[in-house]
Amino acid sequence: MSKPVANTAVSVLVFFLICLRITSEADAVAAPMEETEREALYLAIQGFVGSHWDGRNLYPDPCGWTPIQGVSCDVFEGLWYVVVVNIGPVLDNSLECSQEAAFSPQLFELKRLRSLSFFRCFTSVNQTTTLSQDWRKLSGSLETLEFRSNDGLTGAIPVDLALLSNLQSLVLVENSLTGELPQELGNLVRLKRMSLAGNRLSGQLPASLGNNLAELLILDLSGNSLSGSLPCSIGGMSSLLKLDLSNNHLNGDIPSELGKLKNLTLLDLRNNSLSGVTPSLGDMASLRYMLLSDNPLGGNLMQLGLRNLRSLTTLDLSNTGFVGGIPEYITDSRRLRFIALDNNNLTGSVPKKFQELSGLTALYLNDNNLTGELEFSDEFYRRMGSRFAAWNNPNLCCRFESSGRVLPGVQRCEN
Ligand SMILES: *[C@@H]1O[C@H](CO)[C@@H](O)[C@H](O)[C@H]1NC(C)=O
Ligand SMILES: *[C@@H]1O[C@H](CO)[C@@H](O)[C@H](O)[C@H]1NC(C)=O
Ligand SMILES: *[C@@H]1O[C@H](CO)[C@@H](O)[C@H](O)[C@H]1NC(C)=O
Ligand SMILES: *[C@@H]1O[C@H](CO)[C@@H](O)[C@H](O)[C@H]1NC(C)=O
Ligand SMILES: *[C@@H]1O[C@H](CO)[C@@H](O)[C@H](O)[C@H]1NC(C)=O
């Protein structure tokens, strides 16, 4: 008995759906766009994802009712233009590159392109791609350029990249780039972020960067093969918040001009061949992370200017060839949470005041020549657990408190 009713209900529903579809297609007026702009977009994407990608049919209105994942548009004087292109497997439905991914010349015809990024796109080590492209054409518009994790992106950073005078973010991270940093990169005076980490870049850090990039907030050149000394001009990057030059082959003295970086919060120079520290490091009043481990710095901890670094939370001076005593005033930096002084030639006693740092969670003093008695409370050792180390200090000793706790590699004080 209920069957006809159900049939009627289904028919009504189907009719309704058909109407809905007809009206929505009729209402959908394509976003006004120059035909050349739309064609350039299809051909540009095809270059990366392969010629089988049928953008014209799948996405007839790319800035309107058939948006393409990773592509954004904006209106200029009544017409739609492509302003963002992101290629690579970020989301499930992202555009993914083919093994033969390549730049098509049409990419550089997208007149209003502000942001271009590639993630795991040029991955084939057999068919590599370089950055020598027609950047001049995007010089008036491009603000962000990113290439991340593209093993097949090889060759040098071309001088022509420096023509992108509106660039604010240049991120070329974990590719296979080689060669030296062109000094022309100093022309990119609007840059806020330059991150070239994890390539095989070599040569020196050009002085032009420090002389011109006064708006730079982040400079990350870690994990390359840069050599030579740090230019004094580095003090000119007065806005800098983060400076990461770790894991390179930099040598020479740390220039006193670094002290001019008053807003710097992170200084990471780990694993280089730098020597010689300067008390002016103490002028970096905002510094929270001072990471200098694995460098033959030498000298005395007193020469580090630590007395003034009251915002410091992390101090890594492991394996830096420091000699002399541990100044008690280190503990005046009340926010310290991590202190590594291990693998040096430090002498003298261990300041008891370390235990007054309420946030301290790691203290490494092992492999030095510290002497005398460790005077920390049992509670302190309990709090630190295995993140306290003092072994390989032949003349250091401790007393065992009620718990009978044993500190690995530290002998018991006699009497
Ligand atoms: C590169 O080429 C070699 C020889 O032609 C081939 O065996 C290999 O599978 C290729 N590798 C990739 C990642 O395409
Ligand atoms: C440093 O930071 C302060 C506070 O955020 C800011 O007012 C100042 O302009 C910055 N200095 C430079 C040189 O960027
Ligand atoms: C130190 O840097 C070099 C590159 O200069 C790298 O090969 C090495 O793995 C780094 N060592 C550590 C401990 O990170
Ligand atoms: C400590 O000094 C001794 C003697 O001067 C030297 O042989 C040793 O290499 C130094 N150790 C470290 C870690 O610098
Ligand atoms: C440790 O210091 C003592 C003197 O306090 C000195 O005799 C000894 O050579 C030093 N050891 C090392 C490895 O520097």
UniProtKB/TrEMBL annotation:
Keywords: Cell membrane, Glycoprotein, Leucine-rich repeat, Membrane, Receptor, Repeat, Signal, Transmembrane, Transmembrane helix. This is Leucine Rich Repeat. It comes from the Eukaryota. It comes from Musa troglodytarum (fe'i banana). The keyword Methyltransferase does not apply. GO terms for biological process: detection of stimulus; response to other organism. The keyword Transmembrane helix applies. It is a single-pass type I membrane protein. Residues 1-28 form the signal peptide. GO terms for cellular component: plasma membrane. It is found in: Cell membrane. The lineage of its organism: Eukaryota, Viridiplantae, Streptophyta, Embryophyta, Tracheophyta. Its main location: membrane.
